[in-house]
Amino acid sequence: MSQLLITAAEQENPLFPPIPELVIGTLAFVIVIAFLAWKLLPNINKVLEERREAIEGGIEKAEAAQTEAQSVLEQYKAQLAEARHEAARLRQEAQEQGAALIAEMRAEGQRQREEIIAAGHAQIEADRKAAAAALRQDVGRLATELAAKLVGESLEDHARQSRVIDRFLDELEEKAEATR
Length: 180
Prior knowledge:
α2 packs across α3. The protein has helices at residues 2-10, 19-151, 158-179. It is mainly α. The protein has 3 helices and no strands.
């Protein structure tokens, strides 16, 4: 076993490389790292910076868009409230105008009804007077004929005829009022 340890000590240890290889490996590593730092690192930093700016810009744009959307929403709500208020006002005005129009039409209808009733009463009164005059004339003529037959003489005198007719009709009206 001691022989084995001696031979192992003389052979190179795989965990500890020889110094020249260690120096060459270290120099190659430093050159690769320096090349990467000189060429690749600025590009990586540039891309990362652009991404960061894009993300921050996107966030800022999103916040600005959200603020603008909130502002537009508030304006929309204000316009909607104003439109509802205006609609309520217009509805109220329409109701008031409708009520005023109905009242005006009722008054106009009442006035027309009163006119029709008054015209009807006037027509009835005119018809009654015309009928009374025609009746008076017919009754007078019949009374004159009857009186002429009873008296036996002609009552052709117009003045006398009118007096007899008027007196006869007045007596009839007095009897009619007394019976009522």
